[in-house]
Amino acid sequence: MYKKDFEIRWSDVDANGHLANSAYTNFMSHTRMAFFSEKGFSLPDIRSFNIGPVVFYEHMYYFKEAFLGTPVTVTLQISGLSEDGMFFKFDHNFYNHKGQNLAYCEMLGAWIDLTKRALTPLPKELLKLTEDFPKAKNFITLTKEETRKFGVKPQDIVF
User: Is 119 exposed, middle or buried, given 0-12, 13-18 or 19+ CB atoms closer than 10 A?
Assistant: First the structure.
């Protein structure tokens, strides 16, 4: 399990005085990028392959409030990865200094070719590095069908 510690800053709270949901998203994003960097997927590393990560969804579940000035720990485990590495699913948990679970998030993402602006498999060099990723107990091999299991599709509007 990968862990990243944060302290809740003034800019992280909302009008209710607790951690804003946008801050949860920012903390998870920071945790993922720190994790990727430590695993050989730093921004210069992935840019050398002309790829970048994209988020399809983040499903959040909130359990307890977190407040200004308090520490939080964000964890990351890989709960899914496609055979070619194109799709990835992360489980994030938020904990307070007492170890109480504040929130949980399931995040689904993929890699995009930055020139073609299309999904792309991981290059073999990077795919090899994923073998050492911390895997959750519920880890699955992702298929394209699994990434579309909610059946949500775009519905354009006519003006």
Answer: middle
